[in-house]
Design brief:
The complex is a heterodimer of chains A (about 325) and B (about 325). By secondary structure, chain A is an alpha/beta fold. Chain A contains eleven helices and seven strands. A seven-stranded mixed beta sheet of chain B has the order 3-2-4-5-7-6-12, sandwiched between helices. A five-stranded mixed beta sheet of chain B has the order 9-11-10-13-14, with helices on both faces. Chain B has a two-stranded antiparallel ribbon with strand order 1-8. The chains are: A alpha/beta (about 325), B alpha/beta (about 325).
């Protein structure tokens, strides 16, 4: 898509690039904080996959609903969540999106329609189907986006959830973020048949493949699919082919793939592309650098605020478990 | 008051709740045709196929969809047919429904009811007969309800649907035809949700306390009727809900009688009876006149042939009555 920048709406491209830069800055800061012991548990970076999150979520309304995965920082930021609250959650602090109760794999922000990352692969698919079912029951015009990885298509809930969405004609966009790896193993080695699109089409769900490192292409496809879903056409699948530039987790050196493979993938970095298009569209390098610096500054401030936030008080461990039959006995701490 | 079967009482509870609250809907296999036991008969005609939703045989998706629909503000009633089949949906129930509220820092609630009938019922063998209630008492976030009578299958199902927490609601398949008086208008002047966690003393007695629930309430009553004693000796407590469970009623009874027998249909090892026995040992040991006794199924599988199935059953005559006599003599 060389030359794409020449015909594009500059303001739109700037916004897409800025959101990707915010996600990149957030995850680089999170990895750095992991190294310094500030991030307490595992994180699953989506560095290299930002165009999928931004291309899809930028097309959603605030009241549309998103279900994400363990690799969900990008989706969540693109849906509009506050990076300070997200970073505080990664640090396990008060003021985190979930008050320090969830961490990276359970980030949710219901105020922006983000109904949860999920620590169990494919578990978000039936939940998303149910959210869409509720929307249909109430006759609303909202839609649900359910993002999952290519590893999820070998779990039963993928079949059950897609079948469910089709038979009830639910307003749901499934997005398979295909980075080629199921955790640390190549998905193609473990997957029979022709992959996610073929499986969806076998259930009567139209599927579209897109270059998941091209934010404009993802955004264009998402715009089209979302309009059709909102218009009552029922579920669709977008398969966005991308590449995870980091390991499976922040601690995974990804020694199972060659340096050459990663170097080649870096040439397709979605931010490099959108940056080049911005230049073609007339934005000079200094302006692009300023835009990216603004993203880093915002995330740096988020990191500082999160680091200054207190731990949740121990009594919070007893709250939000259940109303009826809640365990109220605080443990003695000696 | 109406004379209803246990099955009809549950159906009436769902119908009344659906009339009162448009957010309530039910989903499960064959519901449009009344459900596998007829618990939903007539409801699709009254409420339409959207609110009495026929689903594919996709237990994981039924439960998972209910989680998503509950987080969106509806109140789904999930039908799992058999508690055995609900095992296909344990991730959705345990990892998702039970945890979403806490894990997301209180941003959401998951007010779903997972109906999963338990118990032995007419040579149904190892995959259609289990009583797995103790599994769910172990999971923070879940409420576990095990009604024993038509009246309770009415009021406790209403309570379960109105409750904001996810509820595992376990009807006993052998009780479907049991009839009894049900106060079908009786939930206006009291809040059924407050019934959750309250046991019922079915029969008062002075010498021994029997704590039980579900179908075993009736077996325990049969045994209590046959006990040879001067005056009312056996106190029978129907726990009604296992989480939360009514510790105070049980402890007060044991302090009075000094003897405890816990009876349940499920396997004795790791059964909820162990929790009750341990609690009594911790909190009322000095009041005990005899060691606590438990009666549960042997740790074998439920066989098909009557001779095999009977070996798993706890009966009044063979098991409970001798245990009561032995306890009262000690």
């Amino acid at each position: 898509m060389a030359g794409a920048g020449q015909n594009v709406d500059l303001e739109r491209l700037k916004l897409l690039h800025l959101t990707m830069a915010r996600i990149r800055a957030f995850e680089e800061a999170a990895l750095d904080a992991l190294g310094r012991g500030l991030v307490l548990g595992a994180i699953h970076p989506s560095i290299g996959q930002e165009a999928v999150a931004v291309g899809v979520c930028s097309q959603l309304r605030l009241d549309d609903v998103l279900l994400s995965t363990h690799r969900g920082h990008g989706h969540t930021l693109a849906k509009g969540a506050d990076p300070t609250a997200m970073m505080a959650e990664l640090f396990g602090r008060e003021g985190g999106t979930c008050g320090g109760k969830g961490g990276s794999m359970h980030i949710a922000d219901f105020e922006v329609g983000m109904l949860g990352a999920n620590g169990v692969v494919a578990a978000n698919i039936p939940i998303a189907a149910g959210a869409a079912h509720a929307i249909k029951l109430r006759g609303e015009d909202r839609i649900v986006v359910c993002i999952f990885g290519d590893g999820a298509i070998n779990r039963g809930p993928f079949l059950e959830g897609l079948n469910w969405a089709r038979i009830y004609d639910l307003p749901i966009l499934f997005v398979c973020e295909d980075n080629g790896f199921a955790a640390t193993t190549r998905t193609e080695d473990l997957t029979a048949g022709e992959g996610p699109a073929a499986r969806a089409e076998s259930l009567g769900i139209p599927a579209v493949k897109v270059d998941g490192n091209n934010v404009l292409a993802v955004a264009d496809q998402a715009t089209d699919l979302i309009a059709r879903i909102r218009g009552g056409e029922g579920p669709k699948l977008l398969v966005a082919e991308t590449y995870r530039l980091t390991g499976h987790t922040g601690a995974d050196p990804a020694a199972y793939r060659s340096d050459d493979e990663v170097a080649e993938a870096r040439t397709r970095d979605p931010l490099l592309r959108s940056s080049a298009w911005l230049e073609e569209a007339g934005l000079d390098r200094a302006a692009i650098a300023a835009l990216e610096r603004g993203a880093r500054d915002e995330i740096d401030a988020a990191r500082k605020a999160a680091e200054a936030a207190p731990w949740p008080e121990q009594g919070a461990a007893y709250r939000d478990v259940q109303d009826i039959g809640a365990e109220l006995r605080a443990r003695a701490h000696g | 008051m109406a004379e209803l079967t246990y099955l009809e009482a549950g159906r009436e509870a769902l119908a009344q709740t659906m009339r009162a609250d448009p957010a309530v809907w039910a989903l499960g296999e064959d519901l449009g045709r009344g459900g596998v036991f007829g618990q939903y008969r007539g409801l699709a005609e009254e409420f339409g196929p959207e609110r009495i939703a026929d689903t594919p045989i996709s237990e994981a998706c039924i439960m998972g969809a209910a989680v998503g629909a509950a987080m969106m503000g509806t109140r789904p009633v999930v039908e799992m047919r058999f508690s055995d089949f609900a095992l296909c949906a344990v991730d959705e129930l345990v990892n998702q429904a039970a945890k979403a509220r806490f894990m997301f820092g209180g941003q959401t609630r998951v007010p779903l009811v997972a109906r999963q009938p338990i118990g032995m019922w007419r040579s149904s063998a190892a995959q259609h007969s289990q009583s797995l209630e103790s599994w769910y008492t172990h999971i923070p976030g879940l409420v576990v309800i095990t009604p024993a009578t038509p009246a309770d299958n009415f009021s406790l199902l209403i309570a379960a649907i109105r409750c904001d927490d996810p509820v595992v609601y376990m009807e006993h398949k052998d009780l479907w035809p049991l009839t009894g008086a049900v106060d079908v208008d009786g939930h206006d002047d009291f809040d059924p949700v407050e019934e959750i966690g309250k046991a019922r003393i079915v029969r008062e007695g002075s010498d021994v306390t029997v704590v039980t629930w579900s179908a075993m309430v009736h077996e325990a009553m049969k045994a209590a009727d046959q006990v040879k004693a001067d005056g009312p000796a056996v106190e029978v407590i129907d726990l009604r809900t296992l989480w939360p469970w009514d510790q105070e009623t049980v402890l007060a009874s044991v302090r009075k009688t000094g003897r405890l027998l816990v009876v349940h249909e499920s396997v004795q090892v790791g059964g909820f009876g162990a929790e009750i026995a341990a609690t009594v040992a911790e909190r009322a040991f000095a009041d005990l006149k005899a060691p606590v006794r438990r009666l549960g199924a042997p740790r074998i599988l439920i066989g098909y042939a009557p001779t095999l199935e009977n070996e798993v059953k706890i009966t009044a005559k063979r098991d409970i009555l001798p245990a009561l006599h032995a306890l009262m003599e000690s």
